[in-house]
From TrEMBL:
UniProt KW keywords: ATP-binding, Membrane, Nucleotide-binding, Transmembrane, Transmembrane helix
Annotated source species: Lactobacillus panisapium
Name of protein: ABC transporter ATP-binding protein
Domain ABC transmembrane type-1: 14-295
Transmembrane segments: 12-34, 54-74, 131-148, 154-173, 231-254, 266-287
Length: 585
């Protein structure tokens, strides 16, 4: 059973279950004592009845204490289970490859970690132990009842087929409902997470109404499903009560007749009724097990689906490879497609140590994709990436990624403080001097001194409290502290005003020293001084060389530059120097 595979139960659970079983067994004995007491002729004067009474009280107290201890141990294990399942899921998720996330919504995944884990826990530490103790109570009770009077017992036995008639079809219906409810709940979580994360975009696009309409639709769907769910329980409960009532009346009528016939004692009939009252709950629990199982199956299927996803391969060999510096990268015949859409075909690029290499091409040409392949966020369909001639597949993934630092137009800022961002992902915490140095180099000193809490100031979700330039300089400071071999600049000076751009450029200049630079850019100022430029066009490298060489010999590149130059000139961002350095334009 998949549910069991998800869970690793500790010994406290088994101790708790054992205590609960003992408590159930004691519960089976109690009515027998009552029968014996009632059947004695002179109940309150007989010493035998007093001895029965004192034993009865002892058993009741013992049963209560043992049951409480059992319940506590099982519930405690339940809480640990929730934590374990959440931990297992989050650990697995964080190690899944990027293509998995391309097809998922983060809100839905959060729902798996937070909500579905609770269902599984309830099943394992609530439904299953109750089922086991109920089974023991029921079997024990029926054995005693059969020994007391088998004919009367047969009447009570009727409850099973009657209950099954109701719960099996409802259980199947419940499973379908649960799958839909869990999906609906995760959709709802997704909308809330998404809209709050992008609250500025929501307001500026005046999309409040859209978000609320979408939210309302999902909310109504969840409400309808929940009502249906409640209706199932609302139907089950009274039907079960009706079945019980009919059976009690039958036992009373038939038992009363037997007492009149003197073939049954009043004590036996009383204990029968007590047993019946006592066993009705466990029988219903056994019947409900199927419904609960079906309900959990839906949630577990979703969790197992995630756990079946293959994580990224971190360690390829048994130990990390020792590769001597300086590092140079080469990309050979790289092909890549997103699903069936071919994006790169037979791409060849070299990144010699300590050189600045630029990749240019129009929007959608595949520049970011190429960098994502180089950093192994995606795996190529064919071709290879080599580090000093060694195939990347032979190198441990974390060793590989530790070589790269990124300064990007994408927002790589995490919630927390500036300090949290500076040390994010660093294996060894930097000293105060190193932090101060990074701040100075990234041109952040003046900004930080204006903050009340300095480096411990909160930056807001995704760095909302920072300007675009400050966010980029924070990434530069982080890259400085990481001290990578390859620095990836992804349009690092885009969307900034002249002053901000100057600060970022100065900071970059410092942090680029001694590094191999991989620059992806549309803007000429970023790439013009590159040692080599690779021009991506029509899914492959159409040409390569210095800026001047390409301008002279590749008409397509010349057109591309002209277009970019015109665009940036219109937006007023490109510097005059760049315009002057474009021979032939
Ligand atoms: N995760 C993805 N799933 C499917 N298609 C994608 C994905 N990411 C990018 N693409 C597609 O792949 C192509 C190349 O995208 P890529 O982001 O690499 O281009 P780019 O040259 O970096 O563009 P830009 O300069 O506009 O950032 C585009 O057509 C894009 O729509």
């Amino acid at each position: 059973m998949k549910v069991i595979r998800l869970i690793r139960l500790k010994k406290f659970f088994w101790v708790g279950l054992f205590l609960s079983i003992i408590s159930s067994v004691l519960g089976v004995i109690v009515p027998l004592y009552i029968k014996n007491i009632i059947d004695l002729k002179n109940i309150f004067k007989s010493t035998l009845s007093l001895s029965f009474l004192s034993k009865l009280v002892t058993i009741l107290v013992l049963q209560t204490v043992i049951s409480a201890m059992g319940n506590f141990l099982i519930s405690r294990e339940g809480e640990r289970q929730i934590a374990d399942i959440r931990n297992l899921l989050q650990t697995h998720l964080i190690h899944l490859p990027i293509p998995f996330f391309d097809n998922q919504e983060s809100g839905q995944l959060s729902s798996r970690v937070i909500n579905d884990s609770v269902l599984v826990k309830n099943f394992i530490t609530g439904v299953v132990p109750e089922f086991i103790t109920s089974l023991i109570t029921t079997i024990g009770t029926f054995i005693v009842l059969f020994l007391l009077d088998w004919k009367l017992s047969l009447l009570i036995f009727l409850i099973f087929p009657l209950d099954a008639l109701i719960t099996i079809p409802l259980g199947n219906y419940e499973e379908k409902l649960t799958v839909k409810s869990q999906k609906s709940l995760s959709d709802l979580t997704g909308i809330v997470t998404e809209s709050l994360r992008n609250i500025r975009a929501v307001k500026l696009s005046e999309a409040e109404e859209n978000v609320l309409v979408k939210f309302g639709k999902k909310l109504r769907l969840l409400y309808k499903l929940s009502v249906k769910n409640e209706a199932v329980y609302a139907v089950i409960s009274p039907i079960q009560s009706l079945v019980s009532f009919v059976l009690i009346v039958s036992v009373l009528l038939y038992g009363g007749y037997r007492v009149q016939q003197s073939t049954l004692t009043i004590g036996s009939l009383t204990s029968f009724l007590i047993y019946f009252y006592q066993v009705i709950g466990p029988i219903n629990t056994i019947a409900d097990f199927y419904t609960n199982y079906k309900q959990t199956k839906g949630a577990v299927a979703k969790i197992i689906e995630i756990l079946h996803e293959k994580p990224e391969k971190y360690i390829v060999g048994s130990s990390k490879l020792k590769i001597s510096k300086p590092y140079s990268l080469s990309v050979r015949n790289l092909c890549f497609s997103y699903d069936k859409k071919m994006v790169l075909e037979k791409v060849n690029v070299d990144f010699p140590a300590k050189k600045k290499i630029a990749i240019v091409g129009s929007s959608g040409a595949g520049k970011t994709t190429l960098v994502n392949l180089i950093t192994r966020l995606y795996n190529p369909n064919a071709g290879s990436i080599m580090l000093n001639g060694i195939d990347s597949k032979k190198i441990d993934l974390s060793q590989w990624r530790s070589m790269f630092g990124v300064v990007s137009q994408e927002n790589y800022i995490i919630s927390g403080t500036i300090y949290d961002n500076l040390v994010f992902g660093l294996k060894n915490l930097p000293s105060n001097d190193e932090i101060n140095n990074a701040i100075k180099i990234a041109n952040l000193s003046t900004f930080l001194s204006s903050l009340r809490r300095g480096v411990h100031e909160i930056v807001g979700e995704q760095g909302l409290k920072l300007s675009g330039g400050q966010r980029q300089r924070l990434q530069i400071a982080r890259a400085y502290l990481k001290d990578p071999d390859f620095l990836i600049l992804d349009e690092a000076t885009s969307n900034l005003d002249a002053d901000s751009e100057k600060k970022v450029s100065l900071a970059l200049k410092e942090v680029m020293k001694g590094k191999t630079i991989i620059a992806i850019a549309h803007r000429l100022s970023t790439i013009i001084d590159s040692d080599k430029i690779y021009f991506l066009d029509n899914k492959t490298i159409a040409a390569s060389g210095t800026h001047e060489q390409l301008l002279r010999s590749v008409p397509k590149y010349r057109n591309f530059v002209k277009e970019q130059f015109l665009k940036t000139n219109i937006s007023g961002k490109e510097s005059k120097n760049v315009g002057r350095s474009l021979p032939g334009l």
